[in-house]
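sorry for the late reply, my laptop died twice this morning and i had to redo everyting from scratch. anyway the thing you sent over, i finally got around to it. pasting the sequence first so we're on the same page, its 103 residues, then the predicted structure underneath. double check i copied it right bc i was rushing
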Amino acid sequence: MKTLLALLLPATLYASEPAELEYKTAYLWQWVTACVQIMGPEFQRQGMPRHFAMNWAVTGCSCVIDGFRRDYPFESIIQLTSDERRAAGAYYADQCGKGEITL
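ok and here's the structure:
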């Protein structure tokens, strides 16, 4: 199974990832899921078909989360207040809309 996964993942992933991942997969999964559950229906309310709304939400949420990951160590991000998270999220959403976040 490891060999199969190794074939599917780019080799650079192994070279660039730290030995201990700062943001655990389960945390990221919950974060993306929570975001998509909010944004997907919002896009649908604006008239977007469900399939497109959910894909758009996943893409947008992932971009915003990548912005947080780029700028905040995990220990810092979990200490942000609701207002700080909301402000940073709006900032990253704006950057994502302009195509300025690329990781």
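The chain is about 75% helix and 0% strand.
thats about all i looked at so far, will dig more tmrw
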